[in-house]
Amino acid sequence: MESTSLAEQSLSAEDLSALRRAKHELESPALAMKLASIVGAPLEKLLSRMPAMANEKVTEATQLALRKCLQIALCTLGRHDPDAPLVIPDKPSNLLHKFAVATTGAAGGAFGLFALPVELPVTTTLMFRSICDIARSEGEDLSSIDAQLQCLTVLGMGGASKADDDADYGYFIMRGALAQAVSKASSEIAAKGFTAHGSAALLRLLNTIASRFSVQVSEQIAAKSIPAIGAVLGAMVNTVFMDHFQLVAHGHFTVRRLERQYGAETVKAAYQTIDIALDG
């Protein structure tokens, strides 16, 4: 107990406040609860009504969406001018990205599951760009392979996977479950170059993220499965979807920024002393 209080004391008041905010963001209510409050119906019931072929469609669309994000990371985000002057990171454009996904959600609300193969890659790409924007605002170097993969893993941190059996997975456990796959993929790309995007390590990482992200995609689709949900509610569902992952990204990259400053063990110890229930 004494060591954890010492860890907490070693952070400045401003950084401790940032860590508390990050914990709120990372341990915020599940996406299913947020969506249920929007559509006014329990998501479990809506999920059970989805057609049998829905899971297959979600899996295919999720894999395609993640591959597209990875392609963007490897082709565009890796371009960096080492002689460029250092710029103080400014705030991310969260509202702009929310507006963009609301537009795609309006179409999804009108066409439901049939719009998934077209809508999800667009929505996920917009979400990924927003996550990268948030990472940059927290001081991440987006020319770094690890930073790019960390942005991708945020999509796998938005909730538990089907294999987790509803276990109470905290942020550090969830992050740890993805860490080894990230490390192997990062090492392989560093050794073999960007042509390694079809590599076994990267494929395993994508599959791990996809298994987690597809759960949230299914919940999003279920929320849009209400008959005559319409464009307005479809836009709201997508906005909640984007907001959920923006919160996770803000929390994750705040923790990483503090770890660079104070060390991983100190930040983890301080994080564990914070009781967000007392802040409510």
Distance linking N and C termini: 23 Å
Please give the number of β-strands. Answer: 0
User: Overall mean pLDDT score?
Assistant: 78
Structural class: mainly alpha
Radius of gyration: 19 Å
Question: Can you describe this structure?
Answer:
- There is one protein chain.
- The protein is mostly helical and 280 residues long.
- It has helices at 2-10, 13-26, 31-39, 43-49, 54-77, 94-111, 116-137, 145-154, 171-192, 200-223, 230-262, 264-273, 276-279.
- The protein has one domain (32-79, 88-262).
- It is globular.
- Mean pLDDT is 78; it is low at 77-88.
Topology:
Layout: H1 2-10, H2 13-26, H3 31-39, H4 43-49, H5 54-77, H6 94-111, H7 116-137, H8 145-154, H9 171-192, H10 200-223, H11 230-262, H12 264-273, H13 276-279
Helix pairs in contact: 1-12, 2-11, 3-10, 3-11, 4-10, 5-7, 5-8, 5-10, 6-7, 6-11, 7-8, 7-11, 8-9, 9-10, 11-12
Could you give a short description of this structure?
The chain is mostly helical and 280 residues long.
Main features:
280 residues, 13 helices, single chain, 0% strand, mainly alpha, globular
